[in-house]
Write a structure and sequence with these properties.
Elements lengths: L8 H11 L4 E4 L3 E5 L2 E11 L8 E9 L10 H17 L8 H6 L12 H5 L5 H9 L10 H20 L3
Antiparallel strand pairs: 1-3, 2-3, 3-4
């Protein structure tokens, strides 16, 4: 599965807060839903861009109970909340993929084998996947940085560039 242009929910949320500093998130009480012989937890989020937002974004996500993987068992509501928030923000801003990383991961078959960690990954020198996704989400299409520090510097520069261009929009 190609997740190269995927932006995770924490990165989406950070971008939304940068764009709308008065952003407010309201989570409705979770509901238990039964469809046939399956039970789900349903979570709905409403995201207001501004205090007077007349058409806030709303997103809903369902997670099966019990969770079908070690990632979801015991965390069904939290996973549904994260997915619902990711969907809301996905409606507010363009991203390559709507589904949250958790939704994608939670639908993959579990494997018992794990690849050995690469030396640079252990040292933490390479940029994280989240940093690379954020850089792509901010519109960078040139060569990617090769260190975490360089990725952080580029993210800051790209955010400043986006902010500067937004200020001139009015």
């Amino acid at each position: 599965m190609d997740l190269s242009n995927y932006v995770d929910v924490p990165s989406r949320f950070a971008l939304a807060l940068d764009k709308w500093p008065d952003l407010r998130v309201v989570e409705s009480p979770p509901e238990v839903v039964t469809v046939g012989d399956q039970t789900f937890i349903s979570v709905t989020m409403t995201v207001y861009r501004t205090p007077d937002d007349l058409i806030p974004a709303r997103g809903c996500a369902w997670e099966p109970i019990p969770g079908k993987s070690s990632f979801t068992r015991g965390s069904e509501m939290m996973n549904a909340s994260t997915s619902a928030l990711g969907r809301c923000i996905g409606l507010m801003m363009p991203f390559g993929k709507m589904a949250s990383m958790e939704e994608v991961r939670n639908r993959q078959p579990e494997t018992r084998t794990q690849k050995p960690a690469d030396r640079t990954e252990l040292l933490g020198d390479s940029p994280s996947d989240a940093q690379l996704r954020m850089i792509r989400a901010l519109g960078h299409s040139d060569a990617m940085p090769t260190t975490k520090a360089a990725a952080s510097t580029l993210i800051t520069a790209l955010k400043n560039k986006v902010t500067a261009s937004d200020e001139g929009a009015f």
